[in-house]
Design a protein that fits this description.
alpha+beta; three-stranded antiparallel β-sheet
Length: about 425
């Protein structure tokens, strides 16, 4: 801070004016300006002891630095993320940010192959009757597991998740215990035929790996991959933030906001059928189960009270079901928020200006050039076909998902010169 004392300057000017005015004027005109060292040594300039200039303090203290809210949550045995955090139930912005942070973690999806058969055995049973020991034979059936292994498929997710929502005309939970269509004041209970058609299409779409935002009226063709583009996937009239605000504004004692993560991009049913054919090629004739299993794909935000926390315990919930308490409580006090979604693709589509692009590049009707990136299901199956066959023949039983084919070169071999 610079403080200028005007009185000494005035006295100097007065002393100069008392002498010869012309001489004083001439000497002032010829006198060179002072140096920097002379200026700071002059008593006219006074420097404060604290030379830190904090202009922001004039209007009060600076606001604290922004920090994201760290919500409390836990993971259930099925891998779902569950939170009873009170702040997430009251602040729509905090809930919205929490969902975005959870969406960055993709779901876990595995291909599980199980084979088993029944064996009938005979055993001797001793019994005592009227002081006598009797022996008889009986037969019993035992379930034998031949092989049980799984393959990590989710490691091939490509790109960032995209948030999408159901259209207003699609049956979904929108604040009631039953599915509705419409939005705001135009909501109505979905008819049985609408719910049945939507469920059938959702199952078919999941099996074939279609992007979740396309409807049953779309004429799917393999030469039109541009439908996997994520432009305009928010079909609902409300945004995710608006749904979060609507949930937080509800005063229901029991309420729940479910956020689902969906994988798409592969024809999962075709992969499953191909895996079954590989197992059958080993002449296995037992009971075979080949299916995709998804976990860590649901984020559930629930009310912050003791009853809601108790219902998150599956054993307590089971006991309440047996006593018919939970259905009545749920009917009278519970609100189900709309199901919001995020998708994680195995393949994605990008526009390219290279008209000579090779491989998976295709020309779509508007004349744009698009290119599909990511691993295709055929490429993945070619890598794992031999591993699946050998795992069945060797009766492999392993709880840990396989992440690398057994015929893949070891990392130590790849670094060898000339390998």
């Amino acid at each position: 801070m610079l403080i200028i004392d005007a009185d000494p300057v005035k006295s100097k000017q007065d002393s100069v004016g008392d002498g010869n005015p012309s001489l004083a004027s001439s000497s002032l005109q010829r006198q060179p300006p002072p140096t920097f060292e002379e200026s700071i040594a002059d008593h006219v300039l006074h420097f404060p002891q604290d030379d830190s200039l904090n202009l922001a303090q004039e209007g009060g203290e600076e606001p604290p630095a922004f920090a994201p809210y760290d919500a409390h949550y836990f993971t259930s045995r099925s891998g779902d993320t569950i939170s009873h955090d009170s702040h997430l139930n009251d602040d729509g912005e905090a809930l919205y940010r929490f969902l975005l942070s959870q969406a960055s973690t993709p779901p876990t999806i595995i291909l599980r192959c199980q084979g088993s058969h029944n064996e009938t055995h005979t055993r001797m049973v001793h019994s005592h009757r009227n002081g006598h020991t009797e022996m008889k034979t009986e037969q019993y059936t035992e379930r034998i597991t031949d092989f049980d292994f799984c393959i990590d498929v989710g490691q091939h997710f490509f790109g960032e998740p995209t948030h999408w929502s159901y259209a207003d005309s699609t049956p979904a939970y929108r604040g009631r215990m039953y599915q509705e269509v419409g939005i705001s004041e135009e909501k109505r209970k979905a008819q049985k035929s609408e719910r049945k058609a939507a469920k059938a299409w959702d199952i078919e779409r999941t099996r074939r790996g279609f992007p979740p935002w396309i409807g049953s009226d779309y004429a799917w063709r393999e030469d039109q991959p541009y439908v996997m583009q994520t432009n305009g996937v928010l079909r609902s009239s409300w945004t995710l933030r608006q749904w979060a605000d609507d949930y937080c504004a509800s005063r229901k004692y029991l309420k729940e906001f479910n956020y689902h993560k969906v994988a798409y991009g592969w024809n999962f049913e075709a992969v499953r059928v191909a895996a079954i054919s590989v197992v059958n090629s080993t002449h296995y004739r037992g009971d075979l189960t080949v299916q995709f299993e998804t976990s860590q794909n649901v984020v559930s935000v629930r009310s912050h009270n003791r009853l809601s926390r108790a219902l998150s315990n599956r054993w307590i919930k089971f006991l309440l079901f047996l006593t018919l308490i939970y259905p009545r409580v749920e009917q009278n006090t519970k609100q189900s928020a709309p199901d919001a979604h995020a998708e994680s693709p195995f393949r994605d589509v990008f526009e390219t200006v290279d008209a000579t692009a090779q491989g998976s590049s295709l020309t779509d009707p508007p004349g744009r050039r698009t290119k599909v990136v990511g691993m295709r299901e055929g490429e993945w199956f070619r890598q794992w076909e031999g591993t699946i066959r050998r795992a069945v023949q060797n009766r492999l039983q392993d709880r840990q998902p396989l992440t690398m084919p057994d015929d893949h070169p070891a990392h130590q071999a790849l670094v060898l010169d000339g390998y």
